[in-house]
Amino acid sequence: MPRPATDPAKAAQIKLLRQQAGRWLKAEREQAGLTQAELAEQVGLRYYTFVSQVESGLGRLPIETQGAWAEALGLEPGEFAKTLLRYYEPELFRLLFGGEQAKSQAAG
């Protein structure tokens, strides 16, 4: 069965949220005093360009790597994953955390 066409407004929102996630990750990396290459090495990536892609919003962190990224950045893994969930899966975030979304977005 073919997949339904993506709603252009939804696609634009996804792109915007990924870009926001990327800016947040970049700020956290810079605050940790790491270059993209250093972060890539610490999380076991072969190429630092993946870090660049994620920071520019072209990619997203797989769930199975989020703990390593949190550790490399000196962040608590649960809060790190929760922040990424807000960007990557906003509807799931809303279902799980309800009213926290507005508070988190105001802080982010």
Report what the structure shows:
Helix 1 (8-31) packs antiparallel against helix 5, helix 4 (66-73) crosses helix 5 (77-88) and helix 5 (77-88) crosses helix 6 (90-97). This protein has one domain: 434 Repressor (Amino-terminal Domain) (Orthogonal Bundle), CATH 1.10.260. The N and C termini lie far apart (39 Å). By secondary structure, the chain is mostly helical. The protein contains seven helices and no strands. InterPro entries: Cro/C1-type_HTH, Lambda_DNA-bd_dom_sf. This is XRE family transcriptional regulator.
Radius of gyration: 15 Å
CATH architectural label: Orthogonal Bundle
Number of helices: 7
**Order of helices and strands, N to C?**
HHHHHHH
| CATH top level label | Mainly Alpha
Residue share in helix: 55-70%
Q: Could you state the CATH homologous superfamily?
A: lambda repressor-like DNA-binding domains
Number of domains: 1
Query: Beta-strand level of the residues, as a percent range?
Result: under 5%
Q: Distance between the terminal alpha carbons, to the nearest Å? A: 39 Å
Poorly predicted residue ranges: none
Query: What is the typical, i.e. mean, pLDDT?
Result: 90
Q: Tell me the major beta sheet.
A: none
The outline comes out as globular
CATH topology: 434 Repressor (Amino-terminal Domain)
Structural class: mainly alpha
How many distinct beta strands? 0
Topology:
Layout: H1 8-31, H2 36-42, H3 49-55, H4 66-73, H5 77-88, H6 90-97, H7 100-107
Protein name: XRE family transcriptional regulator
InterPro entries: Cro/C1-type_HTH (IPR001387), Lambda_DNA-bd_dom_sf (IPR010982)
Organism: Phenylobacterium kunshanense
